[in-house]
Amino acid sequence: GDSVTQMEGPVTLSEEAFLTINCTYTATGYPSLFWYVQYPGEGLQLLLKATKADDKGSNKGFEATYRKETTSFHLEKGSVQVSDSAVYFCALSADYGQNFVFGPGTRLSVLP
Amino acid sequence: NAGVTQTPKFQVLKTGQSMTLQCAQDMNHEYMSWYRQDPGMGLRLIHYSVGAGITDQGEVPNGYNVSRSTTEDFPLRLLSAAPSQTSVYFCASGHRGRSYNEQFFGPGTRLTVL
Q: How many CB atoms lie within 10 A of CB A103?
């Protein structure tokens, strides 16, 4: 079945450091790919998405590029802030919008 | 537009008790789902619905029932609570038909079963 693998956390960075969170997937067909973010005590909210190969999703300084050849969708940000501390989930949707598959999540802590 | 709402926010049950977690959305979404979130295990799909009157099982359906009598509401029932059901529960909704449609999440219900 479809699956998403993320790098294990937690990830701890200093403010203004560069962030990469790796995500790879296994899916039949051509999935859409998503990054969701969960701030403490809240539900998940969409951070960015990409719907086809070579698409780049971006939002709030975060970026991720859909790489079909490596089945990857790594999340990057050039300069993290303390307010970026959260759990980040990589996800895919390959069934006409039904049944998202989520990765286990990566907890990011940014220190001042 | 309230989005996806869930009640209650917190609940403590004793083993064997039953309860219903409520979920409602006002975005006219066809698709609704329930997930549980446990430490180190990400989100696991419990049940989902693609429209009123239609429900199906997800990855971890045992011990839970759902129904979908209206487009707006999708309650999750625990028939006889067990400590293994201690978790944070999220309801989500979205449009069907395209894989690029995002899901919108509620704020969650934190359930403890003693």
A: 25
Alpha carbon distance A57, B69 (integer Å)? 36
How does pLDDT run across A31-41, given as a tens digit for each residue?
A: 899 999 999 88
d(CA B80, CA B65): 11
> A102 with B43: CB under 8 angstroms?
yes
User: Which of A36, A44, A96 has the most B C-beta neighbours within 10 Å, making it the best mutation to test the interface with B?
Assistant: A44
**pLDDT, one tens digit for every residue, chain B (114 residues):** 789 999 999 999 999 999 999 999 999 999 999 999 998 778 899 999 999 999 999 989 999 999 999 999 999 999 999 999 999 999 999 987 766 678 899 999 999 999
Find the residue in B nearest to A4 (Cα): B42
Cβ–Cβ of B102/A96 closer than 8 Å?
no
Contact assignment for B108 to A46 by CB distance below 8 Å = no
Alpha-carbon gap, residue A16 to A80, rounded angstroms: 5
Pairing outcome for strands A19-21 and A75-77: antiparallel
